[in-house]
Amino acid sequence: MFGRQEVEKLRLQKQALVLESGLNRYALRAEVEQVRSAVAWMTGAAQAPRRFAPFLVILAPLAGFLAVRSLRRPESLFSRLASAAKWIGPVYSLWRGYTAARKKETQAEPPQG
């Protein structure tokens, strides 16, 4: 059969292979963690459209409307600013009325306690 030296040699080879297998396992685990950390941003990037979907539903048609509107009437920058300026007065008075009404509501409420 086998001699004592051959059995000892095979035992040492087995022990070396087991140790090498353990080292390879740790190296593989470290590489898997490195790959996971490298592609972690992809998960967030893939979920971003889902988070912003309600806003995109509103903003996409609005952007299309504004793009078509700007292509239809080639006005000068001054005329665009003038048309925006005529909205400033009514919007400001509406805002002032809203804040005054809110102020009256908060003053009319009795303190809770």
Question: What is the compact description of this entry?
Answer:
With about 110 residues, the protein is mainly alpha-helical. It is built from 3 helices and no strands.
Give a verbal description of the structure.
The chain has about 110 residues and is mainly alpha-helical. It has two domains: about 1-50; about 75-105. The protein is about 90% helix and about 0% strand. It is built from three helices and no strands. It has helices at about 5-40, 40-70, 75-110. The longest helix has about 35 residues, at about 5-40. It is elongated and about 105 Å long. The N and C termini lie far apart (about 95 Å). The mean pLDDT is about 80.
Which key phrases capture this entry?
88% helix; elongated; single chain
List the helices and strands and how they pair.
Blueprint: H1 4-38, H2 40-72, H3 77-108
Anisotropy-based shape: elongated
- The tally of helices reads 3
Oligomer description = single chain
Provide the domain count: 2
What is the string of SSEs from the N terminus onward? HHH
Class from secondary-structure proportions: mainly alpha
Largest sheet: none
Distance between the termini: 96 Å
Number of strands: 0
- The proportion of residues in beta strands is under 5%
Helix content: over 70%
Mean pLDDT: 81
- CA gyration radius, whole angstroms: 36 Å
Are there runs of 5+ residues with pLDDT below 50, and where?
none
